[in-house]
């Protein structure tokens, strides 16, 4: 039996990875794996240990976290009871549907800080691979091509300029009834990219074997079409 197809999509916040990945997965008939949702679920679960969550929220760099706190965060990540439903678009944590809660901006911030903890990344690694093992996946995140699926059939690096990403993220927030000024969203996204790209373990970076797509002037359909062409050239769908 041939190994199922794995498409890895990495890129900074607000580049449109989720929308594009979901549509691409649908077109290819593959499961959609949103790994950011796992880090976000961990961020929610950390909220049950307020002192630890508070220390993580206040982190400037992960080096400032004690080894006990790192180990505890890793244990919490390893014990997450998660299940994806409805084609990977809904997520349950301990049986509770957290699909909406994990999208809150402060959850994304904590996810970004917690994701720099090596013990957390180690704890979530096998889970991510297991989720794609049987049926393959369109997997999106920050380290899909570099760490989780280095042997992925096709790797993409999806980006867009900062203003465009801030506008898209601002649109998402407004649609959720939580509008924020564009300059604030832009500042937050820039800080998050800086953190996600500069951490010591599995930083966001553009790999030499990833196909870069700049979605600034493209809509979702155009990005997906481009990806389908690349996949039919390089992959074996
Ligand atoms: O893609 P997202 O905004 O849902 O991800 C939330 C945070 O989780 C992101 O800022 C960094 C972290 N993350 C990660 O470190 N590695 C991944 N594969 C996915 C997300």
Please outline the helices and strands:
Layout: E1 6-10, H1 17-28, E2 32-34, H2 35-46, H3 50-57, H4 67-78, E3 82-85, E4 90-93, E5 96-97, H5 105-114, H6 118-133, E6 137-141, H7 144-148, E7 154-159, H8 162-175, H9 182-198, E8 211-214, H10 220-234
Parallel strand pairs: 1-6, 1-7, 2-6, 7-8
Antiparallel strand pairs: 3-4, 4-5
Give structural notes.
It is built from 10 helices and 8 strands. The protein is α/β, with parallel strands linked by helices. It has a 5-stranded parallel β-sheet, with helices on both faces. Strands 3-4-5 form a 3-stranded antiparallel β-sheet, with helices on one face. Bound molecules: 2'-deoxycytidine-5'-monophosphate. 2'-deoxycytidine-5'-monophosphate binds at residues 13, 35-36, 39-40, 108, 111-112, 115, 141-143, 192, 196. 2'-deoxycytidine-5'-monophosphate binds next to helix 2, helix 5 and helix 9.
Kindly list the characteristics that best describe this protein.
single chain, 237 residues, alpha/beta, Rossmann fold, five-stranded parallel sheet, three-stranded antiparallel sheet, 10 helices, globular, binds 2'-deoxycytidine-5'-monophosphate
Write the H/E string, N to C. Answer: EHEHHHEEEHHEHEHHEH
> In the CATH classification, which architecture applies?
3-Layer(aba) Sandwich
Q: Count the DSSP helices.
A: 10
The secondary-structure class comes to alpha/beta
Globular, elongated, flat, extended or rod-shaped: what is the shape? globular
Main sheet, how many strands, which sense, barrel?
A: 5 strands, parallel
The CATH topology is given as Rossmann fold
As residue ranges, the low-confidence spans are none
Q: Strand portion, in percent?
A: 5-15%
CATH class call: Alpha Beta
């Amino acid at each position: 039996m041939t190994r199922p197809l794995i498409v890895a999509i990495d890129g900074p916040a607000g580049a449109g990875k989720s929308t594009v990945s979901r549509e691409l997965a649908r077109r290819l008939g593959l499961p959609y794996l949103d790994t950011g949702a796992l880090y976000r679920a961990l961020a929610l679960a950390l909220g049950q240990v307020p002192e630890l969550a508070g220390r993580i929220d206040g982190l400037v760099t992960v080096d400032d976290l004690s080894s006990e706190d790192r180990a505890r965060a890793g244990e919490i990540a390893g014990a997450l009871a998660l299940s994806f439903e409805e084609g990977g678009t809904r997520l349950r944590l301990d049986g509770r549907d957290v699909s909406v809660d994990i999208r809150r901006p402060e959850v994304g911030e904590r996810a970004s800080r917690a994701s720099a903890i090596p013990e957390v990344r180690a704890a979530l690694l096998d889970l991510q691979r297991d989720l794609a093992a049987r049926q393959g996946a369109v997997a999106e995140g920050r380290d899909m091509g570099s760490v989780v699926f280095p042997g992925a059939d096709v790797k993409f690096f999806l980006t867009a300029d900062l203003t465009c990403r801030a506008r898209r993220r601002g649109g998402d927030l407004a649609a959720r009834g939580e509008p924020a000024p564009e300059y604030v969203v832009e500042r937050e996204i820039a800080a998050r990219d800086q953190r996600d790209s500069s951490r010591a373990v599995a930083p966001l970076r553009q790999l030499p074997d990833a196909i870069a797509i700049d979605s600034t002037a493209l809509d979702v359909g155009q990005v997906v079409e481009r990806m389908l062409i690349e996949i039919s050239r390089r992959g074996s769908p």
